[in-house]
């Protein structure tokens, strides 16, 4: 039997099945996609810039219209096996209006790619932005990583990256701040859910890709945001990860978003006075 096989734990299955917990998720996704499409049509953006050789190693760049704008890098969710950047152009709308340049990433998906390959891809994207950010009008010295769900996990992995070993010309503190929204930081529980059919994580790979057990390479700040209506496991994930990295000297800040579920949390990044929008701009200018 393959090492990634594990019995399904029905309690964990319910805790991590966000689509079942939010039955109106198709309408939410359709709203993201429609709003993103409208925004792309209305702005001067550069789409499908290749940051690596893979077919999904592309990003969309939304300039702020000012020189040396701080750079916000958004990484979408979907349990590393679903979704696409085209749904998430909407996160850039009010950031751009606030003078922040935004890059929205695509990355390879499971099961075509293993999780460690996805991590490497997102690191490659940030290295590419370091190399080309100035040409795009962004200030590469002010790079902020932000991700939702699986993207929150990838944000934390970026902040645990030994950058000089990945790319010798990249500074060790490439990522100056991070925002992990509804993130996953300990992957062992996912091995006991249907999510792992595509991830194919074994005990060793689950631990190796769990930020909770990794050493941070930058001091933060790192904001861990969770919707008040999310499952107990999502709250536990952020709380225990916060404790682990605070113990290693990281400036970790907890943010609970009232009346928000796993998907509507993104409204706080897409709204003109959203809590996540204000957090992102404050960190970039702090």
Give a topology summary.
Layout: H1 10-16, H2 18-21, H3 25-42, E1 46-50, E2 58-62, E3 69-75, H4 93-97, E4 101-105, H5 115-132, E5 138-148, H6 150-158, H7 163-166, E6 175-181, H8 196-199, H9 203-208, E7 222-227, H10 232-246, E8 252-257, H11 267-270, H12 275-285
Parallel strand pairs: 3-4, 3-5, 5-6, 6-7, 7-8
Antiparallel strand pairs: 1-2, 2-4
Rg from alpha-carbon coordinates = 17 Å
The CATH architecture would be: 3-Layer(aba) Sandwich
Oligomer: single chain
Domain count: the total is 1
- The proportion of residues forming helix, as a percent range, comes to 25-40%
Based on secondary structure, the structural category is alpha/beta
Using the coordinates shown, work out and report the CATH topology. Rossmann fold
CATH superfamily: Alpha/Beta hydrolase fold, catalytic domain
- What number is the mean pLDDT? 97
CATH class: Alpha Beta
3D shape: globular
Distance between the termini: 52 Å
Write down how many β-strands occur, each being a DSSP E stretch of 2 or more residues: 8
Strand content: 15-25%
Please provide the ordered H/E string of secondary-structure elements: HHHEEEHEHEHHEHHEHEHH
**Count of individual helical segments:** 12
> What order do the strands of the largest sheet run in, or round the barrel if closed?
1-2-4-3-5-6-7-8
- Which regions are unreliable across 5 or more consecutive residues at pLDDT < 50? none
Main sheet, how many strands, which sense, barrel? Answer: 8 strands, mixed
Describe it.
α4 (93-97) links the parallel β3 (69-75) and β4. The protein has one domain: Alpha/Beta hydrolase fold, catalytic domain (Rossmann fold). Helices cover 37% and strands 18% of the residues. It is an alpha/beta fold and 286 residues long. The protein is globular. The chain has helices at residues 10-16, 18-21, 25-42, 93-97, 115-132, 150-158, 163-166, 196-199, 203-208, 232-246, 267-270, 275-285, and strands spanning 46-50, 58-62, 69-75, 101-105, 138-148, 175-181, 222-227, 252-257. The chain contains twelve helices and eight strands. The protein has an eight-stranded mixed sheet, sandwiched between helices.
């Amino acid at each position: 039997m393959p090492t990634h096989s594990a019995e399904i734990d029905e309690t964990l299955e319910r805790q991590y099945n966000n689509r079942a917990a939010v039955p109106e998720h198709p309408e939410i996704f359709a709203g993201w996609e429609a709003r993103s499409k409208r925004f792309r049509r209305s702005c001067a953006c550069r789409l499908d810039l290749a940051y690596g050789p893979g077919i999904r190693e592309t990003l969309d760049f939304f300039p702020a219209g000012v020189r040396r704008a701080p750079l916000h890098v958004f990484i979408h969710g979907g349990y590393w096996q679903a979704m696409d950047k085209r749904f998430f152009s909407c996160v850039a709308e009010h950031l751009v209006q606030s003078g922040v340049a935004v890059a929205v990433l695509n990355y390879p998906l499971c099961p075509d790619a293993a999780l460690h390959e996805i991590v490497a891809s997102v690191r490659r994207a940030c290295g590419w932005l370091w190399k080309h950010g100035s040409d795009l009008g962004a200030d590469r010295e002010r790079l902020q990583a932000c991700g939702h769900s699986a993207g929150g996990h990838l944000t934390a992995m970026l902040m645990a990256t030994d950058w000089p070993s990945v790319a010798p010309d990249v500074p060790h503190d490439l990522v100056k701040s991070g925002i992990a929204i509804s993130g996953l930081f300990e992957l062992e529980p996912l091995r006991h859910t249907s999510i792992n059919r595509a991830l194919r994580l074994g005990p060793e790979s689950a631990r190796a890709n769990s930020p909770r057990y990794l050493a941070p390479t930058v001091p933060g700040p790192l904001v861990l945001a969770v919707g008040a209506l999310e499952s107990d496991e999502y709250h536990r994930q952020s709380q225990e990860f916060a404790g682990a990295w605070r113990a290693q000297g990281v400036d970790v800040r907890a943010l609970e978003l009232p009346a928000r579920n796993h998907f509507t949390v993104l409204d706080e990044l897409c709204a003109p006075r959203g809590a996540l929008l204000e957090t992102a701009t404050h960190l970039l200018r702090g």
